[in-house]
Amino acid sequence: MEEKDTSRLEAFSDGVFAVAITLLVLNIKIPGLELPADKLLPDDGGDSLWQALLDEWPMLVAYGTSFATIGVMWLNHHRLYKHIHRTDTILILLNLLLLALIVFIPVPTALLAKYLERPDLHTAALLYSGTNIFMAICFNLLWRYASYGNRLLGKNVDMRSVAAINQQYLFGPLLYVIAFAFGLFSAPACIIVNFILALFFALPGRPLRALPEKVQPAEDEGA
């Protein structure tokens, strides 16, 4: 087995991803929780507490979208480091740049939740989508640098899987630019498109694993 040199980098990255997801939860405020006990909203089975909770829907929607985005980013980060076995200073710096954007996500998430009920105000949606664009660019830079000429990949890496990742990552920044364009007109549409993109980028792992198996029978017949 080839020894990997990325264990510390992966462990540190996992910790940052966990912190970013935790910060998202801190943006969710329970109405009236900071009030004294005698002034809490009545839990009378009517509209008081339930309505106050429902009024937090923008934060819950933004939280769900950002959680999915960070989760998918972690998933793809994990996939890349199955192929990346060595590190150098430039790779570490690119990884840190990516993590800086990941941990920044709770900021535009909070802004987006605040302004989601004002579809005529687009700045928060643009900041949110812009952050995702830069994250997609950072993922591309990290992968392109590590995979160029097999610079930092494992010795026995499957080149068909590498080629598949190269092709998939070409479209990441472009798709997030489209989401950014939606933000120019509608904040709700912007967050829906970002959520769909998060689900979309969670899918490529299965065909990547299946790719070598699909071409193997043809090789056997040729032999």
Brief characterization of the structure:
The chain is mainly alpha-helical. It is 72% helix and 0% strand. The chain has one domain (7-215).
What are the main properties of this structure?
223 residues, mainly alpha, 10 helices, elongated, disordered C terminus
Instruction: Identify the overall geometry.
Output: elongated
Helix segment tally: 10
What is the count of β-strands? 0
What characterizes the major β-sheet? none
Helical coverage, percent range: over 70%
How many distinct folded domains? 1
**Unreliable segments (pLDDT under 50, ≥5 consecutive)?**
205-223
Order of helices and strands: HHHHHHHHHH
Beta-strand portion reads under 5%
Report on the architecture of this protein.
The structure is a single chain. The chain is mainly α. It has one domain (7-215). Helices cover 72% and strands 0% of the residues. It has 10 helices and no strands. The chain has helices spanning 7-26, 48-54, 57-83, 89-104, 106-115, 123-147, 159-169, 172-183, 187-200, 205-222. α4 (89-104) packs antiparallel against α6, α6 (123-147) runs antiparallel to α8 (172-183) and α8 runs antiparallel to α9. The longest helix has 27 residues, at 57-83. It is elongated, with a radius of gyration of 21 Å. Residues 205-223 have low confidence and may be disordered.
